Amino acid sequence: MSSSNNHTLVLTILVASCLLLVLTPMLFKKRTKWSFNPENKHVYITGGSQGTGLALAKRLAAQGAHVTIVARTVAKLETAQTEITAACRSRDQQKVQYQSANLCNAEESARALRDAEQLMGKMVDYVFLCAGGAKPVMFSEGTAEDLKGEIETDYYTAAFTAHAAVKSFRTHPTPSSCRLVFVSSICGLMGLTGYASYAAAKFAVRGLAESLRMELLLYGIRVHIFFPGTIYSPGYDEENKTKPAVTKLLEEADEGVTPDKAAELLVRGIEREEYAIACDLTGNLIRSLTKGAVPANRTVLDAVYASIGWVALSIWRRNADKIMVAERHRGSGAAAASS
Ligand SMILES: NC(=O)C1=CN([C@@H]2O[C@H](COP(=O)(O)OP(=O)(O)OC[C@H]3O[C@@H](n4cnc5c(N)ncnc54)[C@H](OP(=O)(O)O)[C@@H]3O)[C@@H](O)[C@H]2O)C=CC1
Ligand SMILES: CCCCCCCCCCCCCCCC(=O)[C@@H](N)CO
């Protein structure tokens, strides 16, 4: 081997070692800033009467939070209030209350937040926007009301409460301790047969959250967004009653989690100061591939996810499209509900 070859080899090894030294901690480093602490905070959870919102409420109550849940149906709110109270770390030091409101309405959303603060005697600290729900339907078979309904249920419920919350946060003694947490969906990252109007609304939530993440740096208010796949909630059971068969088939690629697991993963993501939070590998591949200009969770790992996602999602999509074309040939573009 000539000496110039030797030099090249040594140089290559040197450069590779340096890269490894720099990249390894980026890959494996855990963020150590644990400033998320629900203890003694006023936590406001829309959609807190069932499913993910309820699971989250119980989890945060167990960590010492004061909780307000918001939804429309009073009977469900009362049952949930009892369950959350039972989960509290210290029942005589924590308060659990509810507000009944239709959060598609701006005035009611603002009123519910104001009343909750008054009743609690404490401004809201953490606001979780879990209210929502899908009504999957083939686009051509749905009504104009279905189109409006998804925007109301999934976008306005988030936007109006976010608006009221940010106004309150700005008068909070320490706005930089406040957090605003949106709940989108994998359908807020990619569209899917049967979810046209739902995905549109969940993409809208993403645009809102993404703009606010940057804008609210002005006050130090932190924003997060959750992109879960299937969650086995009461809402999921309900939507499955009318879900097109082909949508069910396409969804099989995603394993799904219980509401309690979803809440656990959401909290873990917040503790790690992640802006965009996904549930599992599939979620992380799609999240990283469609990241845009938001901060990565772990720079190198997200780049690896994005590269794998580029290949994996292309393959998945080819198959999904084949399923759709096969449906066309079966003449069941109108694929009706139930499996
Ligand atoms: N389940 C799933 O597979 C997935 C769900 N998601 C999202 O996660 C969030 C939670 O879903 P999930 O756990 O299924 O919960 P559920 O669908 O089981 O519960 C929805 C909650 O939102 C409340 N809600 C709905 N509409 C309104 C409204 N207009 N005003 C006030 N409250 C309202 C409901 O109460 P009430 O009806 O009494 O008002 C209920 O408390 C939703 O945003 C959903 O889109 C995302 C991905 C997957
Ligand atoms: C290896 C790469 C594979 C890629 C697979 C992609 C699979 C997509 C499955 C999407 C599942 C739908 C989740 C959201 C559903 C939802 O939000 C509603 N149920 C709301 O209630």
UniProtKB/TrEMBL annotation:
Domain of life: Eukaryota
Gene Ontology molecular function: 3-dehydrosphinganine reductase activity; nucleotide binding
UniProt main location, coarse: endoplasmic reticulum
First-tier enzyme category under EC: oxidoreductase
Record-annotated Ketoreductase domain positions: 41-224
UniProt xrefs under PANTHER family: 3-KETODIHYDROSPHINGOSINE REDUCTASE (PTHR43550)
Gene Ontology process terms (BP): 3-keto-sphinganine metabolic process; sphingolipid biosynthetic process
Gene Ontology cellular component annotations, sorted alphabetically: endoplasmic reticulum membrane
Organism: Geranomyces variabilis
Transmembrane segments: 6-28
Catalytic activity, as annotated: sphinganine + NADP(+) = 3-oxosphinganine + NADPH + H(+)
The protein's Enzyme Commission number: 1.1.1.102
Subcellular location: Endoplasmic reticulum
Pathway: Sphingolipid metabolism; Lipid metabolism; sphingolipid metabolism
Presence of keyword Transmembrane: yes
Protein name: 3-dehydrosphinganine reductase
InterPro entries the UniProt entry points to: KDSR-like (IPR045022), KR_dom (IPR057326), NAD(P)-bd_dom_sf (IPR036291), Sc_DH/Rdtase_CS (IPR020904), SDR_fam (IPR002347)
Main function: Catalyzes the reduction of 3'-oxosphinganine (3-ketodihydrosphingosine/KDS) to sphinganine (dihydrosphingosine/DHS), the second step of de novo sphingolipid biosynthesis.
Keywords attached to this entry: Endoplasmic reticulum, Lipid metabolism, Membrane, NADP, Nucleotide-binding, Oxidoreductase, Sphingolipid metabolism, Transmembrane, Transmembrane helix
